[in-house]
TrEMBL record:
The active site is at E104. It comes from Gaetbulibacter aestuarii. CDD domains: PolY_Pol_IV_kappa (cd03586). InterPro entries: DNA/RNA_pol_sf (IPR043502), DNA_pol_Y-fam_lit_finger_sf (IPR036775), DNA_pol_Y-fam_little_finger (IPR017961), DNA_polymerase-Y (IPR050116), DNApol_IV (IPR022880), Rev_trsase/Diguanyl_cyclase (IPR043128), UmuC (IPR001126). It catalyses: DNA(n) + a 2'-deoxyribonucleoside 5'-triphosphate = DNA(n+1) + diphosphate. Monomer. Gene3D superfamilies: 3.30.70.270, 3.40.1170.60, 5' to 3' exonuclease, C-terminal subdomain, DNA polymerase, Y-family, little finger domain. Belongs to the DNA polymerase type-Y family. Its cofactor is Mg(2+). This is DNA polymerase IV. Its main location: cytoplasm. The keyword Glycoprotein does not apply. It holds the Pfam family IMS_C.
């Protein structure tokens, strides 16, 4: 059966949400991000881009490049709300879909052409999203996940594009190699220095040449350039949570010990999220008392992977749940409703120093192990940590000295 993969991407998502709330912002150059002296641009409208503004740059520089821009401090709870609204519409209309990030989706429309015509179905889905949310969204439709994503990029803003089967290569050929997903700035420079700027050049090169220059990544780029890389969809319901539990050697009511353990668990899970480039939208706490009665409590939150937001919420939830003051046998922390994404959605509260601190701490953990650096409040709990990457697809290591 012929595959039909739809890629949907909301246009300048944070900016569009702000314009929905305040229509005076329509068509005006807009910067969303940290408004303080050391803030960072989380999103910028199309009008600011010709001034050289892009997301991730310091707000100070962006303001200098585009002084007439309106600057708005972002609000992740609004973006989370709209992200969930769009997700619910797609969930309603498509049986198998992947939520690739807060504003990006893949849907498998294979087989639907029999009954509806996939392009018509995709067009109607897009109209429904625009009508029900007021947010502009674009799509690309083809037999191939990567080609559809590239097609969405070419369709933007607020438009749609179908690439028929057999036309993947000619569609990709005239584009800049920068348009291939996974070609970052560094790879782009390497290829540019070799005189490779268009996808057509990669298409004409032998695969071995790309592999000898860029290794495995070279192979991926070559396959993508030729419309041959078609990774499977990761359905939304799969891998939706990461969790950790601790059974105490001896049941306890030692509140300091309990809070230290929970703190360290939350800190470790937050690191796992960032390493897997994931955000969580729901936290839960579990307590099992010595009589084996088990209680849990969960809280929906705005998408985040930041310690300074997650840990206080986890601690608050634990304090709410632990009311019985009975002996505790086990505690657990779980993050669910996971989507792919990075700090970007939380950039508003953060300074460049804060982002660099996270970066530095995670670099140390990646190099020297998860426990090489910890916040002081979690240091009593020495053996918290999963010692593996839950997103790598490999099974977790069981540790002999731990009660599982
Ligand atoms: Mg987008």
């Amino acid at each position: 059966m012929k595959q039909q993969i739809l890629h949907l991407d909301l246009d300048t998502f944070f900016v569009s949400c702000e314009r929905l709330i305040d229509s005076k912002l329509q068509k005006r150059p807009l910067l969303v991000g940290g408004t303080g002296d050391r803030g960072v641009v989380a999103a910028c409208s199309y009008e600011t881009r010709r001034f050289g503004v892009h997301s991730g740059m310091s707000m100070k520089l962006a303001r200098r490049l585009c002084p007439e821009a309106v600057v708005i401090r972002g609000n992740s709870s609004i973006y989370t709300k709209y992200s969930r609204l769009v997700t619910d519409i797609i969930k309603d209309k498509v049986p198998v879909f992947e939520k690739a990030s807060v504003d990006e989706f893949y849907a498998d429309l294979s087989g639907m052409d029999h009954y509806f015509g996939t392009y018509k179905y995709a067009s109607e889905l897009r109209s429904t999203i625009i009508k029900e949310t007021g947010l502009p969204i674009s799509f690309g439709l083809s037999a191939n996940k990567i080609v559809s994503k590239v097609a969405t990029g070419e369709a933007k803003p607020n438009n749609q594009l179908r690439i028929d089967e057999g036309f993947e290569k000619p569609f990709m050929a005239p584009l800049s190699i920068k348009k291939i997903p996974s070609v970052g700035n560094k790879t782009f420079q390497v290829l540019r220095n070799l005189g490779i700027d268009r996808v057509s050049v990669v298409q004409q090169m032998p695969l071995e040449m790309m592999t000898s220059v860029l290794g495995q990544n070279g192979k991926t780029i070559w396959l993508r350039a030729n419309g041959l890389d078609n990774p499977p969809l990761v359905p939304f319901h799969e891998r939706k949570s990461i969790s950790t539990e601790r059974t105490f050697g001896k049941d306890t009511t030692d509140i300091t010990k309990l809070r230290t353990t929970i703190f360290a668990m939350a800190e470790n899970l937050a690191f796992q999220l960032r390493r897997g480039e994931k955000l969580t939208g729901c936290i839960s706490i579990k307590i099992r008392y010595s009589d084996f009665n088990t209680y849990s409590k969960q809280l929906k939150i705005s998408y985040t992977s930041a310690d300074h937001i997650l840990i206080p919420k986890v601690m608050e939830l634990f304090d709410k749940l632990y009311q019985r003051r009975l002996l505790i046998r086990l505690v657990g922390v779980k993050f669910s409703d996971l989507v792919t994404g990075n700090y970007q959605i939380n950039l508003f509260d953060d300074t460049e120093e804060m982002l660099r601190l996270y970066d530095a701490m995670d670099t140390i953990r990646n190099r020297y192990g998860e426990l090489s650096i910890q916040k002081a409040a979690g240091m009593g709990a020495r053996t918290i940590g999963r010692f593996h990457n839950p997103f790598s697809g490999e099974p977790p290591t069981l540790l002999a000295h731990r009660n599982q």
